[in-house]
Amino acid sequence: MDYKATLNLPKTDFPMRAHLPRREPEFLERWKALDIYRRLRERGAGRPLWLLHDGPPYANGPIHMGTALNKVLKDFVVKSRTMAGFDAVYVPGWDCHGLPIEHQVDKTLGLDKATVDVRQAMDPTEKRRLCREYALRFIDVQREEFIRLGVFGDWQNPYLTMAPAYQAVIVREFGRFVGRGIVYKGLKPVHWCMSCKTALAQAEVEYEEMTSPSVWVKFPLVEPHPELPDAPKQALLIWTTTPWTLPANLAVAVNPNEEYVALEVGGETWIVAASLADELAKVAKLRDVRRLRAFEGWKLKQVQYRHPWIDRTGRVAPAPFVAMDVGTGLVHIAPGHGEEDYELGRSLGLPVYNPVNDDGRFIPEVEHFAGLTVWEADPQIIEYLRTIGMLVAQRPITHTYPHCWRCKNPTLFRATEQWFISMDRDGLRRQALEAIRGVQWIPAWGEARITNMIAARPDWTISRQRVWGVPIVAFYCRGCGEVLLDERIIEHVVGLMRAGRGADEWYLREAHELLPPGTACRRCGGAAFRKETDILDVWFDSGCSHAAVLETRPELRWPAEMYLEGSDQHRGWFHSSLLEAVGTRGAPPYRIVLTHGFLVDGEGRKMSKSLGNVIAPQDVIAKHGAEVLRLWVAAEDYTEDIRLPEPEIMTQLTEAYRRIRNTCRFLLGNLADFDPARDAVADEDLAGLDGWVLLRLNRTIERVRKAYETYQFHLVYHALQNFCAVDLSALYLDITKDRLYCSRADAPGRRSAQTACYRVLDALVRLMAPVLTFTAEEVWDHMPGADKAESVHLMDFPEPDPAWLLEDMERTWERLLEVRSEVSRALEQARAAKLIGAGLDARVTLYLQDVPGGDRHLDLWPLLSEREALLRELFIVSQLQLLSGSSAAEPSPGRRVVLGGQRVAGLTVEVEHARGAKCERCWVWSEAVGRDPEHPGLCERCLPILRGS
């Protein structure tokens, strides 16, 4: 007879192979039909609101792996907060204005920004229309890609920074800064991109390694220094890595607190910092150097020098920023080409001189170098210095240098007329620093990072010389040039934008159509005005999202609970949002700021096409499915830089996914005939091992929920993976196969195991739902129970049950599993000795002896003797006996293995082959096999089951 047919083998149509790339779109269609986001909002009604505010990605091209990582992390947060009992609303958004889109449109139109002023090249309203269409196209592309990742959100009603209502809020927020009196226009050096022809904010600058020429240059003194009345041909030696700034030199800075020295070299006298004199001699290969005199830096104050080749003199000024780590200790000052230079020049009353135009070329008045770009001029200036005898030394230096974040070209510091928000005029910096302390920063080092950035940053450059953005609402009197910047007028323009087509109204109307009737110049009384042509910094646009989104949508509130972006946003969106909210509302727009690291390859390098290490999320999804990509995000500790999902990582993740999936499949297979409403066993009637697995389950629920609540998703991954691989697959499910397969279908022991399996699966599927969004739904579909929700995502997390979290119970099972480990070691030795094959071939005898000073509560005899039936199941052996106070027989090769209590004091394990014969149905060895003439191959347990069926 085929006894296999009498077993309760697992039955499920839950497929072993996931076929994720093919199956996932089916779930997306189902969620769409279910209108899952609306259902979640209905279910969340009346619950505490929890809001993650989306930092808007840029609407330019398909998503990349960094964007995917960010959106999936946000989805983990929103789904886990939802399942923790909150109404976690998620409104996605897009950043739509700015250079990249305008550049793409310029390329399409064939506009060369190097030779054409793109602001005047075509009608701005037409240009803006093309930019808007471009942005909308990629919003649609990215929306579908985010949905494909399994991210839930209000995808049909996102916020767009180019929406007319949003643009009106941007202008209103600008007006609030104007009303505060901290917006001004001034001539100051700013980061300037000569390729994009626009000013850049600090957040739009990336620092990359670059090799530059460094030069040591003589600045001859007009008169001998009083400390050196007879020294010949005296000169200051300056050092710079930007020779192109020398034509703009107007002063030299000295550190007043450092020691300087006069060196006699070849009939000349050079003044340098004493601590840098030896380095100078080495670089310039000087042989005969004599130190004439040393003196404090303050004694150089007001010393007058001549420019190396221009008919101009300057003076030495003390400055504490002069460093002594490199150079000469004397810094050439060009107020038009550096922040510190500008501040020092302003204190000295120097003009802000900038001889470089918007294209990065020298203006005609710069003799010898007019028309050259600054990069073209560098080698020619060095050669000219050599020709006129003013060059002491030169050598290349590799250092970090600012580059434009969009076009990746090096930027210049050059003085231009720009609009600024003052950080200090009305205490904005102080307010922002105070606000930072009231925010929770994850990781904690984020607080120090943004604090240092706010503390050291210059005034905010908010103007851009472009068309695609929101205009700076300011006017100029045509009669006298007076600036008209007034909050009431700005509010009037806001009303026109709200009633019309947003910021396009600025370009569709003349100045007099934008101004309130009767507006006149305060200086000359004139009534003719022209509009400002600059637009606002796009970081101001996105920084206003707290006002344009949180305060305007009825389902949202201000402030948000969390902002979550990459760590570069400490100088980007976190930064601009903080300044914007503090500047207009006196408080930060977020309670928690969570940041993740950058994506790097196995060698720690960032993604780069030139390095060939770019991995597209679309390719990962097509090959492995979005689920495995989501698992990758969960498995990584996002607080550090994150390793790209390279092939070996994907192999590991696929194996981890398969283990979780197969665990769920095994559980489902053993619940095929289980109805939780009819068959569940009460807690007090559960078998011992089933109680253990519920203990482990509840510890896992505790651990996973805490990890979700602290946003440590890698701990969620490890806890679920460990529970499935160790507690379930390697232990509980392996042990309970006998009860599940071989018992009568409705036997109390089998129903007990099924009850535990059901509870485990019910909790497991909900705990994994925020991460394994698709698989959890698939498992949920196959779960038994008639009254379950339509989607696992409409469920809450399980709560840990205190009844299963008893310390005494935990200690008991720790001790039992220690004994099991000893038995397993003995069984392995028996296998190695060819005494047995499988564990069921074994008869195990445990010899228990008293241990002086042992813990009476965990004394082995009462611990084990009360659980003798459980132990045979726990060890997966056919026969077991316990003997107290006896000595084990000596080991006998081929007959028995004896393992002394090396790890469990007082325990000796003896293994020999089981007695009797092997049952053909359950494979347990028994001396009763063979006694029944009708079924001689069955044991005393299986025989009544077979006859009863």
CATH topology of the domain at 206-407: Isoleucyl-tRNA Synthetase, domain 2
What fraction of residues sit in β-strands?
Answer: 15-25%
How is the main sheet built? 6 strands, mixed
Helical percentage: 25-40%
In CATH's first tier, which class of the domain at 206-407 applies?
Alpha Beta
Contiguous runs where pLDDT drops below 50 for at least 5 residues: none
CATH H-level homologous superfamily name of the domain at 206-407? Valyl/Leucyl/Isoleucyl-tRNA synthetase, editing domain
**Global Rg:** 38 Å
Mean pLDDT: 93
Question: Any overview of this molecule?
Answer:
It is a single chain. The protein has 949 residues and is of the alpha/beta class. Among the domains are: 3-15 and 640-785, Isoleucyl-tRNA Synthetase, Domain 1 (Orthogonal Bundle), CATH 1.10.730; 206-407, Isoleucyl-tRNA Synthetase, domain 2; 808-915, Class I aminoacyl-tRNA synthetases (RS) (hypothetical protein PF0899 fold). 39% of the residues lie in helices and 18% in strands. Helix 18 (617-624) crosses helix 19 (626-635). The chain is elongated, with a radius of gyration of 38 Å. The protein starts with 19 loop residues before the first helix and ends with a helix.
Highlighted features:
949 residues; alpha/beta; Isoleucyl-tRNA Synthetase, Domain 1; Isoleucyl-tRNA Synthetase, domain 2; hypothetical protein PF0899 fold; 18% strand
